[in-house]
Structures are given as structure tokens and as C-alpha cells.
Structure prediction request, 122 residues.
Amino acid sequence: MIEKIGDVFQAIQALGLGKTFDDLGLFFADISSDTGYTSRLLVSYGFTDAELRNGEYQKRIHPDDRTSYLEAWRRMNEGKEDEPFCEYRVCDGDGVWRWLETHAVVMDRAPETRHRRKTWQL
Prediction:
């Protein structure tokens, strides 16, 4: 069982999938320990690890898409959903609107928000 986000990174590297995950633009985060990994694709759009973890990136979401994006994350944070999905536009570092797709998976919750526990094995 994967216990920490670092285990995910190690498994990805061990399977030789690092470049594939980078090209897909995947972002992994462990909210409880404030750790994460930002892919080269997101870095090429001008995102930083800190910006993605502290929520500053939300300022880059297109105004027409922001409400539905925030609603998906609210439902997840309240424990009503464990796999939020949303498509939205973000402004990259050059001022160009880029479409992104977010599909998050909650792998574990703190006891006070735990409705279901999800775990993955690689």
C-alpha cells in the first residue's frame, strides 16, 4: 500500500514512467504534509510548486470556469466526493488561455472528514 506521496514518486520512477507522467501534466500532492510534485508541463505553463499547493493558481482560472472548479473542490474538501473532475481554462505565463483537466483522487482522509477510505496499489 502506498502510505506517502514520496512512495508514489518512487513507484513512478521504478516503473520508468517519470517522463510519461511529466508529459501528461500530472501534479501529486499530500495536503497533510504540504508536499507535492509539479510536472514539466505545468512548469512550462509558468506554475510553481508553491503556487499549486497554496492555492494561488486559482487566480489564473478563467472567470467563467472558476465557480464550477471551486465547487468541485468544495465537495471534495467537505468529504462529499472522493474523485472530483473538472475542465477549465488557466492563463499561462505568456497570457495564453490553456485548457486543463483535473481529476483528483482522495487516497485517505483525516478522521473528522473520513466518509470513505480510498487506497491504491501500484
